[in-house]
Each structure stands twice: as structure tokens, then as C-alpha cells.
Design the sequence.
């Protein structure tokens, strides 16, 4: 019995540790707002230069954000946004170097590479940093 109490206390401490150290995950809209903090929206466009895009980020069930230079291009899909998962891989099939709002984008599971859905892109909205006056 004497050895059982320290063992139970150790088990409880280990079980509580991940909960105490885990960061609170923001809601998707809040995550997008934080990413766009200090930026101003420009005129929506029908395409972006995919060859210039340095990275893309999925915001769960909300949007895809492409980084082209210092500009963040936000695409809120017209269809299939509920399939967006930040752990998926985007698979695009384009003709040329442009990604158009009419292009379908497949979603694949990062570990198994199985098809998990697709989205129909909407317009791309550029967000640029506000210049200091």
C-alpha cells in the first residue's frame, strides 16, 4: 500500500502534464484574424501566381492562405470549405503558373495520402501590411 500512493500520484501528474502544457487552439476565424493582424485587404482577384507562392496554410473549415512575397492571399472556397483540415496536403492541377478561382483543389491526408475531399476556390483577397506614416 505504501508503494501504491506514490505510483498513483506520479500517474496523476503525468496525466495532467499534457493538459497543463497544451496551448489553447484558437477558433478558425480567430486564427485567420491573428494571421492577418496589421494587414489591409485589397481588391479580390481571380488568380495568383502559384509559381511565386512560397507557402500555403490551411485554416480549418475556413480558408487557404497563400504567401506570395510579403502579401498574404486569402481564399475562402465557394464549396467544400468544411473539408479543409490543417493536417491535409493541397493538390492542385494547373495549366501554367497561375492558380485560378475556378481551379479545383484536392485534399489528401498528410500521413496516408488518401483523398479526403476537395474545394472549389473562390476569389483571392490580397492582404498587405499597413505602411507606417
Sequence:
Amino acid at each position: 500500500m505504501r508503494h501504491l500512493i506514490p505510483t498513483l500520484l506520479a500517474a496523476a501528474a503525468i496525466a495532467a502534464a499534457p493538459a497543463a502544457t497544451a496551448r489553447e487552439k484558437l477558433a478558425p476565424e480567430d486564427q485567420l484574424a491573428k494571421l492577418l493582424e496589421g494587414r489591409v485587404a485589397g481588391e479580390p482577384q481571380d488568380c495568383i501566381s502559384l509559381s511565386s507562392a512560397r507557402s500555403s496554410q490551411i485554416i480549418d473549415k475556413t480558408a487557404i492562405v497563400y504567401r506570395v512575397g510579403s502579401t498574404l492571399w486569402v481564399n475562402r472556397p465557394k464549396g467544400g470549405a468544411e473539408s479543409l483540415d490543417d493536417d491535409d496536403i493541397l493538390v492542385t492541377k494547373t495549366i501554367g503558373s497561375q492558380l485560378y478561382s475556378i481551379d479545383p483543389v484536392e485534399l489528401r491526408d498528410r500521413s496516408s495520402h488518401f483523398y479526403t475531399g476537395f474545394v472549389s476556390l473562390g476569389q483571392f483577397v490580397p492582404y498587405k501590411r499597413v505602411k507606417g506614416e
